[in-house]
Amino acid sequence: MAIKGLGLILSLALIGYLFHSSDLGNAINEAWIDAHIRDHGATGALLFLAMGMLFTACGMPRQIIAFLAGYAFGLLPGTLLGTFAALLGCLLTFLYARLFGRSLLRNRLGKRASRFDRFVHHHPFSMTLLIRMLPVGSNLLTNLAAGISSARMAPFLAASFLGFLPQSLVFALVGSGIAVAPVLRIGLAALLFLLSGMLGAWLYHRHRHGLSIDAQVDAALGEMEHRHPESSPGRSSVDSR
């Protein structure tokens, strides 16, 4: 898990370096980021938010959007804009699933939505925040599952925004470091990524209260050994996932 995350950081840094130092970078970055977003004030920021919303709603990793936000706007503005773009994509996917896609998605995501319901039922804000802090899992599937579940939109979105911030900061730091102190910033981003991932895994282990958001997440975080569905009939909230 950690190796995959570090690989994503290093690959984005390499792509950003190539964009910055080569003709390929001039053709792509200056044709899009530089020509339409960077130094274009509110218009550029709104265009970036629209782009980030659509791409994350369609399943693009929000880390890439944060990376591009850091490249275009710098560390702190990029962190906030990248997070807000991911939140808008989350909202778009959530509303689509809730308003239009319930019948279409119920057969495919019904079990996942049921797990989500059980996971966030008593503490929707804190448990959604816990999900967003995890270093594994699918952002798109979580948004769709939340949309067809009974989860309330306001706490889900508020917790999602806060939960998106740590990784947005990490990847905006990578994007903003392509031209300025790249070794320092990319090294710091790798360290922050590891720390945030360890924190998310520890919080999940500590506060999930025997519940699970996804069996694959449990396996990735080493939680499978704590589940004994065949011998624990009293723990139906876990076993029925």
From TrEMBL:
Q: Which residues form the VTT domain?
A: 61-176
Does the keyword field hold Glycosyltransferase? no
Keyword field contains Transmembrane: yes
Q: Name one Pfam family in it.
A: VTT_dom
InterPro entries in UniProt: TMEM64, VTT_dom
Sequence intervals crossing the membrane: 43-60, 72-97, 156-180, 186-204
Q: Which UniProt keywords apply?
A: Cell membrane, Membrane, Transmembrane, Transmembrane helix
Compartmental location: Cell membrane
Q: In what way does this protein cross or attach to the membrane?
A: Multi-pass membrane protein
Q: Family assignment?
A: Belongs to the TVP38/TMEM64 family.
Q: What PANTHER family has UniProt attached to this entry?
A: GOLGI APPARATUS MEMBRANE PROTEIN TVP38-RELATED
Protein name per its UniProtKB record: TVP38/TMEM64 family membrane protein
Species of the source = Aquipseudomonas alcaligenes (Pseudomonas alcaligenes)
